[in-house]
User: What shape does this take?
Amino acid sequence: MSVDKLEAVAEDWHKALAVIAHPDDLEFGAAAAIARWTGQGKEVAYCLLTSGEAGIDGVAPDESGPLREAEQIESARIVGVSAVEFLGQPDGTIEYGVALRRLITSVIRRHQPEIVITNNFRETWDGDVSLNQADHMNTGRATLDAVRDAANRWIFPDAGDRWNGVRQVWAASSPGSRHGVDTTATFDVGVESLRAHKAYIEGLNQPDFDPAEFLEGLCRAAGTRLGTKYATAFEVFTP
Assistant: This one.
């Protein structure tokens, strides 16, 4: 069976903003790519809509939220990212709508990125039966819309000065991915960034879960499509 090849993403940019729903979302594949880019001297900032407070079954939200924020900050540090902000949206019940678009628009206008990174927001992870979460879907869809909103001076004029400099939006690990980036040299850093989510991983109640093994399966498959050992795949959108 033939494998669709991936086209390399553009890397002639300097500034990116990642907009995601939860701590750990980027670490399940995209963090190794971010380590590559920070290593090139690029500037990447993280904006998390929630603190992931509902993500650990055995830990109450008021304890889990601060714990997961701390793990995310450390995870970001490992891949060279120091700008991490949490917007306090409710974990598990993010609603797509005008309010969410306005919130993300304000972040885009403030950071003024050339590239916006988000997570897979398709209904499934595999294009078939592995269901995605509502938070991911609503976050990604609102991020796409907010990129266009940010460029229109008449939409959300109270959310900062317009920014029309976003060139593309990249959704990591989408089943519709047709682009990718070589993460062979930064794969191990990506693994360490996932390991930093220690409390979350322990809360999965999967004793056999191995971050390196999980990421190797994901990134090796993408690497095969890109023609490298390891890669991160992205679905690319142009506003």
Summary: The beta strands are 7-8, 15-20, 43-48, 83-86, 115-119, 168-172, 179-182, 231-237. The chain is about 35% helix and 15% strand.
